[in-house]
């Protein structure tokens, strides 16, 4: 019988590529990871790892075993969900992760409903960039999370997660009012008219940063990045002050400052709600998903959110 903790290390080595990266993900030392993987190899009785340069790589058997690990972990999640469903009432901690605009707009209604309908739940919210969500779910730092991608920067589905569509919204180019006339050049892409503008983008490594750069490159130029700001309210304030232009999704618009014009793009941002594969039957996870869906629908019906355009 294989140790599930060691199987997770093998799975993560296959995913992350180095012992050092696995150690960082599990907050332990590379030596400890190596020892556990060596013990797993002894349990298997066949080579799972091989030297490759200064590092290690999985053998074909190791790759196959890592692949089976996802199914094993999903089965354990499903087993936990079955046991939880047999209990009376919903109790325990539910850790919810979301990107900033969702925390401001979608989660408040969901948290109110969950607190009212399931007072035994201890709800915890973490704000984080969607790029960090899969790792946080895999490592049990989150139970349910919102993540998104753009058609300009699609993200491959994570085999460790189950997810379902939640929201599809327009992306706008936010420009100072006096510069909006540049859009009149009959261009199918408003971004093309702002190749000489200063750009306000997200921090390097965030999805928003990647999308802004790709949108500009698709329009035929590299953006002249002047400001790096992650909060869309602050971004729009800078645009209103004439400090540059920026891409803003519908959910990030909020109260539009005076002096800002929004030019709709063909690009879309797609939000999904995710949890670990197999955990969808857990009553607390299911209740959280239902609450977020209902809060999203209410937000859209109020006319303040995305997806109505």
From TrEMBL:
GO molecular-function terms, A-Z: DNA binding; DNA-binding transcription factor activity
Domain HTH lysR-type per the UniProt entry, residue ranges: 2-59
Domain of life of the organism encoding this protein: Bacteria
InterPro entries in the cross-refs: LysR_HTH_N, LysR_subst-bd, WH-like_DNA-bd_sf, WH_DNA-bd_sf
Alphabetized CDD domains for the sequence: PBP2_LTTR_like_6
Pfam families, alphabetized: HTH_1, LysR_substrate
This protein's GO CC annotations: protein-DNA complex
SUPFAM superfamilies registered for this protein in UniProt: Periplasmic binding protein-like II, Winged helix' DNA-binding domain
Keyword line: DNA-binding, Transcription, Transcription regulation
Family: Belongs to the LysR transcriptional regulatory family.
Protein name: DNA-binding transcriptional regulator, LysR family
Species per Swiss-Prot/TrEMBL record: Nocardiopsis flavescens
Lineage: Bacteria, Bacillati, Actinomycetota, Actinomycetes, Streptosporangiales
């Amino acid at each position: 019988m294989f140790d599930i903790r060691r199987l997770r290390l093998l799975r993560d080595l296959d995913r992350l590529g180095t012992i050092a990266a696995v150690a960082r993900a599990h907050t332990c030392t590379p030596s400890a990871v190596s020892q556990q993987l060596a013990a797993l190899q002894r349990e298997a009785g066949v080579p799972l790892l091989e030297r490759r340069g200064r590092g290690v790589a999985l053998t074909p058997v190791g790759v196959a075993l890592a692949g089976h690990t996802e199914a094993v972990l999903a089965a354990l999640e499903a087993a936990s969900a079955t046991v939880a469903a047999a209990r009376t009432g919903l109790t325990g901690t539910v850790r919810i992760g979301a990107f900033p605009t969702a925390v401001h707009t979608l989660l408040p209604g969901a948290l109110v409903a969950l607190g009212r309908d399931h007072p035994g739940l201890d709800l915890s919210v973490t704000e984080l960039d969607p790029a960090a969500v899969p790792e946080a779910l895999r490592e049990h730092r989150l139970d349910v999370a919102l993540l998104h991608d753009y058609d300009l920067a699609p993200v491959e589905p994570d085999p460790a997660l189950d997810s379902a569509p939640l929201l599809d919204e327009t992306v706008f180019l936010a420009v100072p009012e006096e510069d909006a006339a540049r859009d009149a050049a009959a261009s199918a892409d408003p971004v093309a008219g702002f190749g000489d503008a200063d750009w306000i983008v997200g921090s390097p490594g965030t999805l928003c940063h990647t999308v802004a750069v790709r949108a500009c490159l698709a329009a035929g130029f590299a953006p002249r990045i002047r400001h790096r700001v992650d909060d869309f309210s602050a971004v729009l304030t800078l645009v209103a002050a004439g400090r540059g232009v920026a891409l803003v999704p519908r959910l990030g618009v909020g109260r539009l400052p005076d002096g800002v014009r929004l030019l709709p793009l063909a690009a879309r941002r797609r939000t999904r709600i995710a949890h670990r594969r197999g955990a969808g039957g857990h009553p607390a996870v299911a209740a959280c998903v239902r609450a977020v869906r209902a809060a999203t629908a209410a937000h859209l019906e109020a006319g303040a959110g995305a997806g109505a355009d």
